[in-house]
Specification:
single chain; about 240 residues; Rossmann fold; 7-stranded parallel β-sheet; globular; binds nicotinamide-adenine-dinucleotide; oxidoreductase; Sc_DH/Rdtase_CS
Length: about 240
């Protein structure tokens, strides 16, 4: 039996990268998945691919910064699969801009998606899980929620916020059977990383390579399943050794 047999998992950013790799692994562990993304083309194509392999999958287009869109995701998930057990709160954006050139609009947009959006999805998840009597939330932060780096002030501030939001929610709902933990990836080979940056980021990493989305998915499965049953409010840093330096 799979580690998520019969569970319903909502995955934001589910059309690409870490979210898509996690959806594949979750399905192979018996879960039904709700793929949530802004990118409708990729999301629908991935939904069709999963369904063609007999998996139960639903794509819902949503912007995680919209309260209305987020509410609709949970309505659709419950209408289609009857419940929500797991939420991988993972959609995010990132761009490198020196702080003295960082427009307030870009700051606001990054914090809006990477922190406010994570809050909106977490709040909607908790509302559903309180009704159901429990659940599991995995937020994607970053190793840059733990350490700083030049040129990513807004991203790093937002991801640091996600790490502490995770601690706070873990504490707040510990007695309600809702576990909340964060995944903190290092540099992972997904479309969020520009092709021309990959070599230099690999060089900056002690293991001298980028991580693979599938390696993140295994960590998410640990956090989402009963394998991590005594863990809440915590962060799992999976970064090829970067933050050990
Ligand atoms: N790849 C890395 O090196 C790395 C490192 C640390 C943390 N992360 C985090 O991992 C998460 C997933 O990133 P990824 O590497 O898989 O990148 P990705 O670009 O492949 O996937 C991100 C997905 O999120 C979606 N998305 C973006 N904004 C959205 C919004 N407002 N509403 C709904 N969907 C939205 C995108 O359409 C995309 O499909 C992000 O939170 C990112 O910050 C990535």
């Amino acid at each position: 039996m799979g580690k998520l047999q019969g569970k319903v998992a909502v995955i934001t950013g589910g059309a690409s990268g870490i979210g898509a790799a996690t959806a594949r692994l979750f399905v192979s562990e018996g879960a039904k998945v709700v793929l949530v993304d802004l990118n409708e083309e990729k999301g629908k194509a991935f939904e069709s691919e999963l369904k063609a392999s007999q998996a139960e999958a639903l794509f819902v287009k949503a912007n995680i910064t919209s309260e209305e869109d987020v509410a609709n995701v949970f309505e659709q998930a419950v209408a289609t699969f009857g419940k929500v057990d797991v939420v991988f709160n993972n959609a995010g954006i990132g761009r490198v801009t020196p702080t003295h050139d960082l427009d307030y609009a870009e700051w606001r947009n990054t914090v809006n998606v990477d922190l406010d959006g994570v809050f909106l999805v977490a709040r909607a998840s908790i509302r559903e899980m309180l009704k159901a009597g429990g659940g599991v939330i995995v937020n994607t932060a970053s190793m840059y929620g733990w350490v700083g780096s030049p040129g990513s002030a807004a991203y790093n501030a937002a991801k640091g916020g996600v790490v502490n939001l995770t601690r706070s929610l873990g504490l707040e709902y510990a007695e309600h059977n809702i576990r909340v933990n964060a995944l903190c990836p290092g540099f992972i080979d997904t479309p969020i990383i520009p092709e021309e940056s990959k070599q230099v980021l690999a060089t900056m990493t002690p293991m001298k390579r980028l991580g693979q989305a599938e390696e993140m998915a295994k960590a998410v499965l640990f956090l989402a399943s009963d394998d991590s049953s005594y863990m809440t409010g915590g962060s799992l840093v999976v970064d090829g050794g970067y933050t050990a330096q």
